[in-house]
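#help-structures

NK: newbie question. if I give both the sequence and a SMILES, will the prediction place the ligand too? trying with magnesium ion
OV: yes, paste both and it writes out the complex. here, I ran yours:
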Amino acid sequence: MAAITMAEMWTTVGSSIASFMFVWTIIRQYCPHEVRLYLEKSMQRLMSFFNPYIHVNIHEFTGTRLNRSEAYGAVEAYLSTNSSKSAKRLKLEMEKDSKKIVLTIDEYGKVTDEFQAAEISWALRATGSPQQSMGYRQNSEQERRYYQLTFHKRYREMIAESYLEHVIKKGKEIRVKNRQRKLYTNGVTDRFWVYPKQSMWADVQFEHPATFDSVAMEPEKKQEIIEDLLNFSQSKDFYARIGKAWKRGYLLYGPPGTGKSTMIAAMANLLNYDVYDLELTAVKDNTELKKLLIEITGKSIIVIEDIDCSLDLTGQRKKKKTEKETDDKNEQEKKETKSKVPNEESLSKVTLSGLLNFIDGLWSACGGERIIVFTTNYVEKLDPALIRRGRMDKHIELSYCTFEGFKVLAKNYLLVEAHPSFETIERLMEETKITPADVAEALMPKSRSEDAEKCLSNLIQALEEAKKEAAMKKAEEESREKEPAKDDSLLQDKKDTEEPQ
Ligand SMILES: Nc1ncnc2c1ncn2[C@@H]1O[C@H](COP(=O)(O)OP(=O)(O)OP(=O)(O)O)[C@@H](O)[C@H]1O
Ligand SMILES: [Mg+2]
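OV: that's the protein plus ligand as structure tokens.
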């Protein structure tokens, strides 16, 4: 009797489910969109009464904002790392400003995640009607996508307190890693005055291939710089604790061709930062400098190349003090800078104080996580205030090529780590000065037939020529030094012979 009742009961349940499904299908197909939404919501409410699972929705667009929500973007990036392993419905995306293609779950696709032994599931859903969706323009009728996070209610606290933070943090990191980095320049500022709403910076994709592996310098020094940079990029909390803006200044100095610009590219590639190449001579005045600064985002390197030639920043303070100094000295100074600074006065009114404010004034703290790099060939010409620690925190000298530096270049250019000619090269490098740029040029195969052997002999030849040239220069200088003495002695002789008369 009981068995018959059970069978009957299951039949009744089965047929009720079937009729419900039938009615639901009719509703989905024929009911107006608003009615369907209303019924769906009511159903969800009813189900959630018995359901131990909690849902959290992260919408692509919130309120009236036309921009995608940051949280949605972060979740999407986070899910792109594990969804390809477990989800069955995937979609391929390539966001604007992203250099990578990403696979994320497609609409109605699902993916599971594990965190502190809790099983969490993610799904991509959409409300509204897809037919009416028009790109990013939103209204209540259009399709709105959202990620739905589902977990058991016993994990409520853990999810709210740590899991969501973990997802957003990881997602942001992935987005930063995947984004296409930019190289900005202010060389075309005129367009700002024509179209005031446009950015003062023009940009191109940053694609410099230099890395610290390709920079020729002593391994210990290189390691120290890498650690310094990595330490800076991970020290947000430290800077907040000590009450200092999250930025760091590097002064790279040394003769031309020793790798200053190469190192900046390597820094940007190491930290995944954008590069803002600031052309000071194209900045009209201090106000414009401030405007440029405000537009610079975080995770960026601001570069001012050849700071000694950019403007007469070296002299402006001193000029006031030394007005009474002899005209000769001023003439000499003018001659020294003239060749490097064409029409500087007519181009820019940026002052030293404007630049000092740019580096560490109140405005410099907007944005955070910035590195400022100055490069110069003549560190001694710079105003001490400009390069004092706190402004330029780390001074790095890039100098002539050492044997260690050569070994890096030989490995990169020729794939050679040891060779009988290395001994000669080491000896010659101790005897003469050669820039890494010259070494790199000598090691570069000039035709397909040039092998490592030939390139190394090219370098030996270049070193020998540099040695001869240096010897000749030295001899010339010595003879020039002796000449006045010779003249003096001739004069003395003449005097001696004239005196008895
Ligand atoms: N330390 C280095 N390691 C690797 N390559 C280098 C190094 N120095 C120079 N080079 C090579 O020489 C070329 C010129 O170097 P770079 O432009 O970095 O020199 P620089 O110090 O910025 O010179 P300048 O003072 O004239 O601007 C680069 O393209 C690079 O190939
Ligand atoms: Mg350079």
